[in-house]
From TrEMBL:
The Beta-lactamase-like ARB-00930-like C-terminal domain, residue ranges: 353-504
Protein name: Uncharacterized protein
Record domain Beta-lactamase-related: where: 84-268
Alphabetized InterPro entries for the sequence: ARB_00930-like_C, Beta-lactam-related, Beta-lactam/transpept-like, Beta-lactamase-like_AB/R
Length: 505
């Protein structure tokens, strides 16, 4: 465990522009980059050679002149010059930045309007969501409580709303849903706009008509879940705050003050500097830890020390109060001993109860329908051991889809609680049971253990993958479990297949 506090350990290095060591390393790095890009082979994996252009610029904040101490550009032989773009990549070349624009959106909010609106509900600025929040019939598992979603929650990916609307919906793509075991959709459930390769982008009216139908992923402020949807809504919030189009606000609040003359909110008129890969510029599609969370507060005065701690994962709070000449050391040691002893026990109890309540097989109640789910558990938690729908192995379909789209295969499909549940006995269904929502988290294959060590964790993308694939506006990872009065699972709804399976063993 590191002995340092969070933050820098050393002073930042100076003189990088003139350092002979840095310059020698830069030359070696540039040569290796060229070799890798031309050959398509590297120690960390292979790729199709000479198909990607790249620009790398590294600057030091210690230099006022802002000159880069490493500036590397590689031009792919397959650059699409015929589409009006450049045929040679330089420091003036223009790339699309995708979701880095989320930073710029956040800068517009903070620079232009400060923190005053951070805790305001989004319904204050978006009338479509205000109307949705005014409904007398809202259900916490089905409906986003938009009046509980703040601008700060949207900005920090803590709103609990879905990743996208329609963009990755399988129903909006040329996808063989029947062969994949998915049910036929009504026309109402099929998106008619998306902004992907199959459908045009949604206008504002179309967008909100679809967004308000989407299920929440988590309750607000439960956990970070990457959301393009949230940032599009944030764009509408900014338009309301600034009484101007989003692109104009980016220009006046961020780009012009910083002198970013080669950065644009929309396509630049002069396409001569565009870096356009093989294909057509219109092919572009917008891109869109610690295991235990401890919340602590300590105190000390004279010969007294105290520690108050919350463990929300387990619904536990603890306090340590010490009086005496060694109070500081004692409170630290005692708290550490408590946590070392308590957390494994709580983990085992929680996992044991979870498996007792949920593990088993769930089957269709319809005769002659081969649909079932088997839930099991290991030391990490619940996982989907088997999922068959209409005779089709959905896990096998998911693996094939991952391979087809260039995604990593997965070892486990794990079920994670979302903090979304029916609020009280009064809201139980007609059968007397209550419902809790789960999301399927795909545990992807780790990198080769015999390969070189990596700084970037290849398996750290789960938060951005949640709710990323949909079918008929419902995430493929969206599950609802029906519990009896004792908290034991009776039924499970894999909502994407529009079916409910009953527990059989």
């Amino acid at each position: 465990m590191t002995p340092f506090l969070l933050g820098p350990v050393y002073q930042p290095p100076a003189g990088l522009l003139t350092s002979s060591v840095v310059n020698a390393r830069n030359s070696d790095l540039a040569a290796k980059l060229n070799q890798v890009l031309q050959s398509g082979h590297s120690d960390f994996g292979d790729f199709e050679a000479s198909t990607s252009s790249i620009s790398i610029t590294i600057v030091s904040t210690e230099h006022d002149e802002d000159a880069p101490f490493f500036d590397f550009h590689y031009s792919s032989p397959s650059l699409n010059h015929s589409a009006g773009g450049t045929d040679r990549v330089t420091k003036n070349s223009i790339y699309r930045i995708g979701s880095i624009s989320k930073l710029i959106t956040t800068y517009v909010l903070l620079v232009g309007y400060g923190w005053e609106s951070w805790d305001h509900a989004v319904t204050r600025y978006v009338p479509e969501l205000r109307e949705a929040a005014s409904s007398d019939y809202r259900r916490p598992i089905e409906d986003v409580y938009w009046d509980k979603v703040t601008i700060g929650a949207l900005t920090s990916h803590l709103s609990g709303v879905g990743r996208d609307y329609a963009n990755a919906d399988l129903a909006s793509q040329n996808f063989p849903w029947m062969e994949a075991g998915l049910p036929e959709l009504s026309p109402h459930d099929i998106p008619h706009c998306a902004g992907n390769a199959s459908l045009p982008p949604c206008n504002r009216q179309e967008y909100f008509q679809g967004v308000i139908q989407r299920h929440p992923v988590f309750s607000p402020w439960t956990t970070p879940v990457y959301s393009n949807l949230g940032f599009r809504i944030l764009g509408y919030v900014l338009e309301a705050l600034g009484n101007a189009p989003y692109s104009s606000l980016i220009q006046t609040k961020v780009l012009e003050p910083l002198g970013l003359t080669d950065t644009f909110a929309t396509y630049p008129l002069n396409k001569g500097f565009w870096v356009i890969p093989a294909g057509n510029e219109n092919d572009f599609v917008l891109i869109m830890v610690m295991r235990h969370h401890l919340y602590t507060k300590s105190g000390s005065v004279g010969q007294y020390s105290s520690q108050l701690m919350l463990l929300p994962d387990y619904g536990v709070a603890l306090s340590v109060l010490v009086a005496g000449s060694s109070n500081g050391r004692v409170v630290t040691i005692a708290t550490e001993m408590l946590l070392q002893s308590l957390i494994p026990v709580l983990e085992n109890i929680a996992l044991g109860e979870e498996c007792a309540n949920f593990c088993g097989t769930y089957e269709s109640s319809q005769p002659n329908v081969n649909s079932s789910i088997t839930i099991a558990a290991d030391a990490a938690g619940l996982y989907l051991d088997r999922w068959i729908n209409q005779g089709v192995d959905i896990k096998a379909v998911a693996q094939a889809y991952a391979a087809q789209t260039g995604s990593s295969p997965f070892n486990f499909a794990r079920l994670q609680a979302t903090n979304l549940r029916d609020p009280s006995v009064a809201n139980h269904t007609a059968q007397g049971n209550r419902r809790v929502a789960y999301r399927l988290i795909f545990d992807t294959t780790s990198e080769d253990p015999n390969g070189p060590p990596r700084i970037l964790d290849l398996n750290s993308h789960q938060w951005s993958a949640t709710d990323s694939i949909m079918y008929g506006e419902i995430g493929v990872d969206d599950f609802v479990v029906h519990l009896d009065a004792n908290g034991t699972a009776m039924m499970i709804e894999p909502r994407v297949v529009r079916d409910t399976l009953r527990r059989s063993g």
